[in-house]
Every structure is written in structure tokens, then in C-alpha cells.
Amino acid sequence: MATDGPNDRLVVGDTTKGKRIKAIGNYWPYATTIFDYVRRAMPFNQPGSLTNEEVYSLTAYLLNANGLIGEKTVVNAASLPKVKMPAQQRFVPDDRKGGLEIR
Ligand code: HEM
Asked: With a 6 A CB cut-off, is 43 part of the ligand 1 pocket?
């Protein structure tokens, strides 16, 4: 799951060799999105089958695998929003005005 297959990687690999591969650790701006995505859509063949506890554990596993939290860090509703994602400052608010807008 973490390294192979046709879809986006889940774990940041070696980015020193030029190509930046988008993964959770270098592209996702909010840690809470991991919980939300996994809770709604994963496992792909059986979404909705995991308990919230299990989804928090998987979120912790993925954050740890991406080097963003320690092995012993407890991830729950209180701690997850506090995890700072490196990609957060790479996004800017879209405040364009005057064109076609969907609100
Ligand atoms: C509970 C275990 C799983 C977790 C925690 C998990 C987690 C994730 C995450 C975080 C993504 C988003 C990746 C990204 O866009 O950067 C993802 C995408 C995806 N996963 Fe899983 N996954 C799990 C199980 C599975 C299984 C069992 C399958 C296949 C049978 C699967 C198939 C996919 C596919 C096809 C995508 C891409 C979906 C899309 O781009 O629309 N996943 N998964």
C-alpha cells in the first residue's frame, strides 16, 4: 500500500533525487484529512467498516510512516488537529473576485 501501485504514494520517499512525489507527508495540508479520507473511503473494497478508533490508529500509522509523529504519539480527536503538516504553508487561499464563482 505504501509504495507500490498506480495511485499516489502514502509515504514520502527519497525526494533528494530530483522528482518530488506527492504524498501525505509533503502534500497534504491538514492531518485531519487523513482521518476523514480513510473514514469515508477506505478500505477501498469496504468503506465504513472500520471503527473510529481503528481509523485514528491508521492515521497515526500513516503520520508516523511519513516521519511526522513519534511511534508513541497518541492520535485522537484532541491531538490530531494539532499535528502540523509541512505542506500547510504551500497552499494559498483562493480569494479571486470578479470571475465565475461557485459558492
Ligand atoms: C484500511 C486500510 C487503508 C488505508 C488506511 C488506506 C488509506 C488511503 C489513503 C490515505 C489514500 C489517499 C492517497 C492519496 O491520494 O494520497 C488512499 C487511496 C486509495 N486507496 Fe486506500 N487505504 C486502505 C486500504 C485500501 C485497500 C484495501 C484498497 C484496495 C482494495 C485501497 C485502494 C485505494 C485506491 C484505489 C486509492 C486511490 C483512490 C482515489 O484516488 O480516488 N485502499 N488509501
From this structure: yes
pTM of the model: 0.83
In this structure, are residues 31 and 38 in contact, taking their beta carbons and an 8 Å threshold?
no
Residue 1 clears pLDDT 60, i.e. is over it: no
**69 close to 63: Cβ distance less than 8 angstroms:** yes
The rounded distance, in Å, linking the Cα atoms of 29 and 86 is 7
Closest CA to 40 of 53, 30, 55, 25: 55
Pocket test for ligand 1, best of 4, 7, 62 (most atoms within 8 A of CB): 7
Tell the residue nearest (CA) to atom 15 of ligand 1: 8
The number of the ligand 1 atom at minimal distance from the alpha carbon of 7 is: 37
44 ligand 1 Cβ < 6 A:
yes
Complete domains list, the chain, with CATH: 15-89 (1.10.760.10)
